[in-house]
Amino acid sequence: MNKAWRIRIGGLIGVGVLSGLFFQGSWLQILLVGVPSVWIAGPFAVAGGVVLLVDYLKGKKVSASVKYFYAVLGAFITFAGVSLSTGLGVHHYKEQQIFNYVEESLPWVDKFYLERGRYPLTLEECGAPKRPLFVGKSLRYSGGEEEFSFIYVDSQSLMGGVYLDSNSREWNHWD
């Protein structure tokens, strides 16, 4: 493999990683990368593999245009695999950080309530730890006189998520 191909493959993997970090396993990434790779590239790869195998068994040579087509198809499948695995990995890591962050913040919220008789309006008001990097704005907190809630809007669903409130103190799903 010459240097130009190594650079192209490295660039393709780099773009896959960057798109995974950007989309973070969201429904948009699954729509733009996952669906085409399963419903378009997948059937071409399977059918083409059968045709290539039959031609190989018959002793036919593969034309340059067919080789180029499968090189492009292989490149797309490589990009899709790297992008989706990076994005889904980041999404899983983000969810773990969110749940751990809420567990770390709950004692601060409860302590504030015991001292002042109300829940803090913001997490900064009670001195809770700083949000982890990947949490961003997908986790929301609201507090008031009698109750509080943490709401996590899941990027893998269009309208779903989970919430934890002061009454149940458990994560509950909504769609």
Describe the structure using short key phrases.
single chain, alpha+beta, 4-stranded antiparallel sheet, about 180 residues, 3 helices
Overall description:
- The chain has helices at residues 3-23, 27-58, 64-116, and strands at 139-143, 148-153, 161-165, 171-174.
- The protein is elongated and about 85 Å long.
- Helix content is 61%, strand content 11%.
- The protein contains three helices and four strands.
- It is α+β, with helices and mostly antiparallel strands and 175 residues long.
Count all strands and give the number. Answer: 4
Mean pLDDT: 87
Counting copies of identical and different chains, the oligomeric state is single chain
- Radius of gyration equals 24 Å
The assigned structural class equals alpha+beta
Strand composition percent? 5-15%
Note the total helix count: 3
Instruction: Describe the main β-sheet briefly.
Output: 4 strands, antiparallel
Order of helices and strands: HHHEEEE
Stretches with pLDDT under 50, minimum 5 residues = none
Strand order of the largest sheet: 1-2-3-4
Number of domains: 2
